[in-house]
Amino acid sequence: MDSLFARPGGLLKFFHQHFKDAVEYSLLGCVSDIMCRQQRAAPPTPCEMAFHKQLAKFFYDQPHSSRRTEELPWHLERSGPYQAS
Questions:
Q1: N or C: which terminal CB in the chain sees fewer CB atoms within 10 Å?
Q2: DSSP 3-state helix, strand, coil percentages of the chain (rounded to 5)?
Q3: Contact criterion met (CB below 8 Å) for 55 and 71
């Protein structure tokens, strides 16, 4: 079985959590526990807020699409207070 496969819409799905963690650490410098924390409705950690800020910026820069419309508000909400840079 492949450890990584593409889902419709270009989403990537990792077969094993360790692969996901390795990619997160490589790209963000930390590993988030987003799914676990969402189930408990816990506030995001600084690592998770950084993760969401990166994804919010990515989706903000994308052309308008249904995926952008779905993803951008979620990541903006979870990225913490807005600070103009």
A1: C
A2: 60, 5, 35
A3: yes
